[in-house]
């Protein structure tokens, strides 16, 4: 069997490595003309994602590129400490969730795939595919074609292949938030390495962690009408946090803001596969970053799909088993993350109610049993 994989972000290389472990040939086709070095801010790789990477023998390299962040402390915009909850549950060997630059995670999984003999072709934007008997043929924008037994789409939330697979299917859903993030050495934000501080401000949401180096890794979510993008985001961000009881606004006055990007997730699809084509990662079940699970779910998908393709008698049975194993969990995470996103942008009345009930909610969430479904999930190859 040979698998064609479209997309060389996080999910694509993880998928290729999982297939190689299962004894299946794979080749990756990336739409852009070069790699994603330096692209994106940072993300959370939860303990369940690291557990899935361990199945592929890649978790230690990823952990070495990130910083451990096992705790989250929640604050209101008035400076009230709302409570504390684990950012993942430690694995049996003590491994905890890590925060890592997206470009570093990309580099590690891409380099691991290349080191294992995976071919990656750039400038290969898929525009069409067709099935010819027992094969699938992928056509690219540059006029070239590739042929394989299955086509695995790992193109992300705005996947073209998903739209070709089901033209009437749901489109990405805007969360109501724009996301920003960066790394700065501006002093004034208290914290210790390993702890995220999450601030539910009066008008927007802010999160940060302090690295052992003294750098502050921060992100902000600003409620905004989609498309309402000023030429300069700084005044809008500073104004949104100026009334909060912390130094967030001061940091944003000088920090490199990068580009503000709208945050999307994906409503449930009618199906994740058709014929010899199947979706994984954000292409199948994009989740907002609020739960810190996007990359972890993608690696879990890769491990499960590779096992199913190895063990089932044909691709249809493999795709059906993969979707049956993964759909319920993925959709639960998407819904959970969306609820968190909604709590970041309530109105004045909703904000008061949120701050009143959140301490009780966090006390329940601190019970490891309540988080087990999310962080104790284990996939096997």
From TrEMBL:
Alphabetical UniProt keywords: Monooxygenase, Oxidoreductase
Acyltransferase is among the record's keywords: no
FAD-binding domain location: 2-335
Record's protein name: 2-polyprenyl-6-methoxyphenol hydroxylase
Superkingdom as given in the UniProt entry: Bacteria
InterPro entries: FAD-bd, FAD-dep_Monooxygenase_BioMet, FAD/NAD-bd_sf
A Gene Ontology molecular function term of the record: monooxygenase activity
